[in-house]
Design a protein that fits this description.
The protein is an alpha+beta fold and 429 residues long. It has 11 helices and 18 strands.
Length: 429
């Protein structure tokens, strides 16, 4: 009889199944109505998680500064049981919530190193104070929806929740978020979506020119007015900022003034988001293909570089004041969020969002194709070549649509153009 080998055989790792390409994730945000006692518990958990985040950041910083050692997420996660023995209050927080705090820090460092590799401004992960840590996440379990109007959270209890819409798919994660004095639950669901089985009822195409004077001008000539949510509340916001600066730091009156300011910003944000949802839904239901410019909003809103006199060294006027007003209006319009909503809604409705190059869409005549130079203050397009007379934004919307149609015709030949597809969006190169 042969003697058995004393060394145990290693278990073969089970191959991970490939992810379904039709798998999608969608987040649903619902309002919570916790009791006064539950609010105190939630705020206590936020403070403990903030302390853990800062302690983990300090450990990583000191380890590299003193010993040249990089501390990983796994090393810090393995220390959690010992931390719970040393600090018993952390036993009242769900274990996966504490793990997610360390995971957030790991993602912050990963983004920091990515920016360094790409030559961008790195932005080292910073400390979190009470004004910068607003949410906790249950990444896998510890939460459950009961009877349609109660959310059960581990270590907290039942919280009243307003489920104003039906969720689609399986709930994977739950994030409890504080916005001023209000609390929300963000539930992330996973579901299957087969784009091949989704058909749009219309075959219409439209070019959309995003602007400041009007929010959007369609190639059909329809103008969507700009609501200017931030501009309407600008005086109240400025007054609230002045009130905060008059209050003593750390006082209860300063804390109340901060809450009043957060309410103003929250109203502006909710109104803007509501407008974008309604407008994007209307466009998605009406048009199958929506064509936008591939705008670099970060570059459009960048601060102008200072100009300096070579002889005297004095700084010259660079138009920063006027540029600041234009940048504020661009950010108030929320172009990026609107295009993103259009893309996500169009993907589910069987439509497509396409992006084309934005160069000279305003200057080129949509009728004959010649360049008609015009300043930003000139709002009317007049072409001496073909006699075209129309609004400059309408002219730009027509050029955006024509640019997509031309690229589609070129792609139908012997050398097709393959658009770059990303999350329901296509970018024509």
């Amino acid at each position: 009889m042969s003697k058995k080998d004393p060394t145990p055989l290693k278990k073969e790792k089970k191959a991970r199944e490939p992810k379904d390409p039709n798998l999608r994730c969608k987040a649903y945000k619902f309002r919570l109505y916790p009791t006064k006692k539950q609010v105190g518990k939630l705020e206590w958990m936020l403070r403990r998680c903030k302390e853990l985040y800062n302690a983990a950041l300090q450990e990583r910083r000191d380890a590299y500064k003193m010993c040249g050692v990089s501390v990983s997420y796994r090393i810090q996660a393995d220390q959690l049981p010992a931390i719970k023995q040393l600090r018993e209050e952390y036993q009242d927080i769900h274990s996966q919530v504490l793990q997610d705090v360390l995971k957030r820090l790991d993602k912050a460092f990963a983004a920091f190193f990515r920016r360094m590799m790409n030559g961008e401004t790195p932005g080292y992960p910073r400390w979190k104070n009470g004004d910068r840590y607003h949410s906790i996440t249950y990444p896998q379990g510890g939460f459950e929806i009961l009877h349609g109007n109660r959310l059960h959270l581990s270590k907290i209890g039942h919280i009243k929740i307003k489920l104003h819409r039906e969720m689609k798919g399986k709930v994977k994660t739950c994030t409890i978020k504080r916005e001023g004095e209000q609390w929300y639950a963000v539930l992330t669901c996973e579901y299957l979506h087969d784009a091949a089985m989704t058909f749009h009822s219309s075959e219409q195409e439209v070019g959309v020119d995003l602007g400041v004077k009007v929010f959007a001008m369609l190639s059909t000539g329809e103008a969507i007015e700009n609501p200017r949510h931030l501009r309407l509340e600008e005086r109240k916001i400025a007054s609230a900022h002045r009130t905060i600066h008059r209050r003593k730091k750390g006082s209860h009156r300063r804390h109340r003034a901060k809450k009043a300011l957060s309410r103003l910003y929250r109203k502006v944000r909710n109104r803007r988001r509501d407008f974008q949802h309604k407008t994007s839904r209307r466009l998605v239901e009406q048009y199958q293909i929506m064509v936008f410019e591939d705008l670099q909003i970060k570059n459009l809103t960048a601060t102008p570089k200072p100009k300096q006199d070579e002889e005297t060294g004095a700084y010259l006027s660079n138009g920063a004041a006027a540029k600041a007003g234009l940048s504020k209006s661009i950010l108030d319009a929320g172009w990026g969020g609107f295009v993103q909503l259009c893309a996500s809604k169009a993907e589910e409705a069987g439509g497509t969002v396409v992006k084309v190059a934005p160069h000279f869409t305003t200057q080129v005549c949509s009728g004959c194709g010649i360049v008609v130079p015009k300043d930003l203050s000139v709002r009317w397009h007049s072409c001496l070549g073909c006699g075209a007379e129309l609004d400059r934004d309408h002219n730009a919307a027509l050029n955006i649509l024509h640019r997509y149609q031309q690229s589609k015709q070129i792609g139908a030949g012997s050398v097709p153009q393959v658009p770059v597809s990303l999350c329901g969006e296509e970018l024509i190169l």
